């Protein structure tokens, strides 16, 4: 990119966007599966129910909830980013094609015959 020009390898960018979407889906699946297992296991309070276990549980739950929420948001964000990339590439290519057609329709005034009036 230079001199105000944008170079876009549309196929490569589309594949990158699709890969981001797939990565987001994989993160979302792992959040549901592994994150679900983590939440289920902590629900059993394996650290015990005595005073020490209760104190641990009180601190741990906040961190667990934050981790699971961020994990879920990361998956959604990657999926959305991938979709946005693909949509943006399509819009950029479409705009470029429309502009190219419109430029092709502009008459070349330097090569048309001109009438001279006296």
Main beta-sheet annotation: none
Uncertain parts: 114-118
Mean pLDDT: 89
State the distance separating the first and last CA atoms. 50 Å
Strand tally, please? 0
Q: State Rg.
A: 28 Å
- The secondary-structure class comes to mainly alpha
Percent of residues in beta strands? under 5%
What sort of overall outline do the alpha carbons produce when their principal axes are compared? rod-shaped
Helix content: over 70%
- Per DSSP, the total helix count is 2
Succession of helices and strands: HH
Short recap of the structure:
With 118 residues, this protein is mainly α.
What would you note in describing this structure?
- By secondary structure, this protein is mainly alpha-helical.
- The protein contains 2 helices and no strands.
- The protein has helices spanning 10-43, 51-104.
- α1 runs antiparallel to α2 (51-104).
- The model is unreliable at 114-118 (pLDDT under 50).
